[in-house]
Amino acid sequence: MIAAAAVLVATPATAQSSPEDLADRFERALVAGDYRVLPLAEGFTYTENGARLDPWDGMWRTTTALEGAVDFPELDYRVELADGDTVVRIVESIENTVHGVMAYRLVADGDQIASVDVLPIREEFGGDRGGTITLLQPMLPFTMDGELVGPPDPAFAQAHSNPVQDIEQTIRRYFAFATGEAEGPLPMDFGFPDDCVRTDNGQRATDVSDADLLDPAQPGFRPFALGCNAQMQSGYYSNFSVGDVRIFADSARGIGIAFVRLDQAGTVLSFEAPGIGTVTYPGPRGAVEGANTGEQFDGRILTNMISPMSVNGAYLFKLDERGGIARIDAFYRGAPLGWDAVPD
Predict the structure, then answer these.
(1) Most buried of 173, 279, 303, 325, CB within 10 angstroms?
(2) What is the reported pLDDT for 127?
(3) If we measure between CA atoms, which residue out of 252, 318, 323 comes closest to residue 90?
């Protein structure tokens, strides 16, 4: 770490540092564990998971590697969106031996860094005494497993022949309709192309032919075997409401990055799936018929969608030339209900 910091100190500042340059320097400083090499504006603020921290705390002490900041063969996910003085990135990370992704927003003030807001999404596993999973952070259907996070789909980097309009409106409509909060009937065709793909924490979450059941009493309903449109129409996300959302868009590439807080009140225990009937959300026990809950937790048994919690995440959307959602990469983690890590 000392050697890495020395390299940073020896690197001369450019006459005019772009926000992207400042973001690169921030990442190298984070790996080095030394914020003192950075040009920080007066009143600089640093937040992690929505909590105001002093540099030297949090990821400043734990970050081992970031994709693009150091040469690390295990890392390959990195997407950037820049708009004026703001840079938003989703970058694969390793902290000590903990694998995950780091989503962050950096705001520049001229040649200085005014603020950085970081959302780390780390591996979560069951294990002895429950591992990292508790009622304050219930097991999610897709928990982060860093080894499953591959490179981003090349489509996220490809520009369109014409700028895509209304990206923010489309993303907001997606969350509103998926959670059932939108006014009026759900449109039968939301504009998803047939080959739309959604991944959750690096794992395929649509069109998975051997997807697990959600409710053993409804063997005909497998939410992750559905395509993007059918999954949104199914009511599967009815247990969530949209607590907070902040969207950054790049019309040339047709992409948007949404920092989102979704609230699970724990009061919605079932939903009506079209053509299926009543589907009951799984709780920590009995989610798999005949499961031995005395054995080590394995996530499939203990998926918990009926306890109060919030999900904070960074969702990356790719829209096609028509403005339909073609790709969704969702990275998120659980937190106590109401905990908000969305940047102001």
Answers:
(1) 325
(2) 54
(3) 318
